[in-house]
Amino acid sequence: MPRLVGQQSHTETNVAILIIFIAIAGVLLEYFGAIDFVPGFGQEGAYLLQRQPTNESVTEQDN
Fold first, then answer.
1. Is 63 exposed, middle or buried (0-12, 13-18, 19+ CB in 10 A)?
2. pTM greater than the 0.70 cutoff
């Protein structure tokens, strides 16, 4: 078992990496349209939240 006496803590590094990952996740969510904090940024329409057509909605259409 290694001795931890005198070892430096890497808390600052871990917090910085966590903040970077959260920022990347936020940018990806914004880009794909799951959130909309910046109008005009990302793809047209909400890619992740698009409503897929169901059999009921297809059969309700008039021919």
1. exposed
2. no
Contact 31, 43 (CB under 8 A): yes
CA distances in angstroms from 13 to 9, 28, 32, 60, listed in the order given: 9, 23, 29, 56
> From residue 57, how far is each of 53, 61, 63 by CA, in Å?
6, 7, 13
pLDDT (tens, 9 = 90+) of the chain, 63 residues, equals 567 777 788 899 999 999 999 999 999 988 887 887 887 777 765 555 555 566 665 565 555
Structure tokens at 24: 């990347």
